[in-house]
Design brief:
It is built from 19 helices and ten strands. The chain has 447 residues and is α/β, with parallel strands linked by helices.
Length: 447
């Protein structure tokens, strides 16, 4: 059955199986039968782990940022501007370390596109950060406290005429544009078109066209790099789509950390209403990308729900309900929410075992959470992975890494439903420690 055949009539489980069938059979031309067999074997191991079964062995997944550049002797700047070096670095990393999941070069982004659009929400190598450093978010109050109703009543219009002009210099003239909903009758069409004749608006669209051309060049390179790795090494990706917890959508890059914390006290009802509005938007965004990429996993990085940001009482009221709604919405469409729990969730674990979330349909990647305690709570409910620390991979010794992997295998992975992974995204590490992680996984991870 295809993804489009009677889709609305399928159950969530049937949709899940269709998506995994597409994931298992991606329609790419593998370089060899061995590569194709390795790909299918890895997808099956991942599927078994998600379903809380014991695969033939524990899958090994490495979450990397700019480390492949470090490993290949390049800079972070090279990865965002020189696609030949980008390919060399990521092909070398995947070939040398051989994880079970693709280390994709997609998330590093195209520096040229950001420059054309005058993107000021981030600094990146060569544009605010050093050539060998990662990109950094520039947190500000890009959404004002008086604008909640604008966001709630027309999210797309708010993005177009308020948020984007503040975060992209190229979109600043869009503040003059009329809402598309003005186009309802003939007498109003002419007036709505007037802003598009303004020189600064036309210049904005020229930049947008240039950015589109640069983005096509970039995605062509990324697709070729990742595609070659998949075809030759047989490594499936684990990021089909992207979504966020609605609290983080608002708190990360619209209101900002301090303002959203104040909103919980000064305008709690508006905050809750806005987050409810963002649930469907995040579900649709994740499902759309997962469908286009023929990959069921929807990546959700969790930020401001970590221990220390909110009390459990506030987490229960402001963070968890709409995150749960996004999770359930994705599961209903056959997707697998892949939740990266940044920081620690030692005080939140009971929330993750919520009986309203179907068993064996989510993957929780932990950064700094107590894995033994997490296993006690999530056993029989959800697949989990992590949390080999970045500090150990950089400053530790190979034997320490092996010992910790062995501990995870004996105390967390023993009943299935586990994926071996690092915690924090790897920007720098010692190669011998990463090799130790992978080899220890192969050594101790068989059931």
């Amino acid at each position: 059955m295809k993804l489009t055949d009677n889709w609305d009539k399928l159950s969530a489980q049937e949709k899940y199986e269709v998506r995994f069938d597409e994931f298992m059979n991606p329609g790419i031309e593998f370089a060899s039968q061995e590569a194709e067999q390795a790909y299918k074997q890895r997808v099956q191991m991942i599927k078994d782990a998600i379903e809380l079964k014991k695969p033939e062995r524990v899958p090994i997944s490495l979450s990397v940022g700019f480390y492949p550049a470090v490993y290949a002797g390049f800079t972070a700047y090279d990865m965002m501007y020189d696609y030949e070096k980008l390919g060399i670095a990521f092909k070398k990393f995947n070939k040398d370390f051989k994880p079970d999941t693709l280390a994709s070069c997609f998330t590093l982004g195209p520096g040229k596109v950001f420059e054309i659009l005058e993107y000021n929400l981030y600094q990146w190598p060569g544009n605010g950060t050093a050539d060998n450093a990662s990109y950094q978010c520039v947190e500000k109050e890009y959404m004002l406290d008086s604008e909640y109703d604008m966001l709630i009543n027309d999210p797309s219009g708010y993005w177009m005429r308020r948020y984007l002009p503040r975060t992209f210099g190229a979109f600043a003239p869009w503040q003059a544009l009329s809402p598309w909903t003005d186009l309802v009758e003939l007498p109003f069409v002419g007036a709505s078109m007037i802003p598009f004749g303004l020189p600064d608006v036309q210049d904005s669209f020229k930049k947008l066209l240039a950015a589109g051309e640069a983005a096509l060049e970039w995605i062509g390179a990324v697709g070729a790099i990742d595609g070659e790795v998949q075809a030759t090494q047989g490594m499936p990706g684990m990021m089909g789509g992207f979504a966020k917890a609605p609290f983080d959508t608002l708190g990360d890059t619209l209101r900002g950390t301090r303002p959203i914390m104040l909103d919980m006290f000064r305008r709690p009802d508006k905050l809750l209403e806005a987050m409810d509005k963002l649930v469907a938007i995040n579900v649709e965004m994740g499902v759309r990308a997962a469908t286009a990429n023929h990959n069921p996993f929807v990546f959700i990085p969790l930020h401001k729900g970590a221990d220390g940001f909110l009390s459990n009482k506030d987490f229960a009221k402001y963070y968890w309900p709409t995150l749960k709604a996004v999770i359930k919405g994705l599961v209903d469409e056959g997707c697998v929410p892949f939740l990266f729990v940044e920081g620690a969730y030692n005080q939140r674990l009971e929330f993750l075992a919520d009986p309203e979330i179907p068993e064996g349909k989510t993957y929780w990647l932990f950064d700094d959470t107590d894995m033994v305690e997490a296993k006690k709570v999530l056993q029989g409910r959800a697949c989990m992975g992590g949390n080999v620390s970045g500090s150990m991979l950089k400053a530790g010794k190979p034997q320490e890494v092996e010992d910790y992997v062995k501990f995870l295998m004996e105390n967390v992975a023993q009943d299935g439903g586990f994926i071996l992974a690092n915690g924090v995204v790897i920007e720098d590490a010692e190669a011998e420690n990463l090799h130790a992680l992978v080899q220890a996984g192969l050594k101790y991870g068989r059931y």
